[in-house]
Task: structure prediction
Amino acid sequence: MSGFTLLEIMVTITIILILTGIITASWPRFRERQNILMAREQVQAVLSRAQQQALNEERDQSCLNHVGSDQKSQQRCSDIGVAIKGATLRIFADTDGNTNTYTPSDFVLEERTLPEAVQATGATWQSFLFKGIPPILQLYGPNGILIQGSTKASVNVVTGQTQRTLYISPYGHVEE
Result:
């Protein structure tokens, strides 16, 4: 007679159930790690876009539309930054010029959302501003200017039970 014995079938089913249990238990952590990686890539893309806009002096003229025509020559749309709060990323033009941070009076050029269930921690906007006269730009973080080799800014992101710190270098590169 040919075929499998009851013992062989039970061992095979047991092995399949154990593997299924391991995969099922690790799936949520895998998804959280993937979401954090996607968030890092999204922050990197937005910082790169803002840096390119600052370097190329691309200005959306609508950033000047909210001021009177007599003030347009004094209005600043030259410094471009990124602000992060919760699941929101904003590329903004620093129109007030008084601070190196995002304020509600600054003009929002573009808004994006972090991947599903990922949030930046903190109750206030964390700002990163590319400031200067192209081709020389300096990146200002929440605690001032970022200097190559000595300072990096950080953004804490969380999804589910996974929390990571994203480090932003003076050139706008994002590392984990």
Q: What stands out?
A: The chain has one helix and ten strands. The beta strands are 80-85, 88-93, 107-113, 119-120, 126-133, 136-141, 144-145, 153-159, 162-168, 174-175.
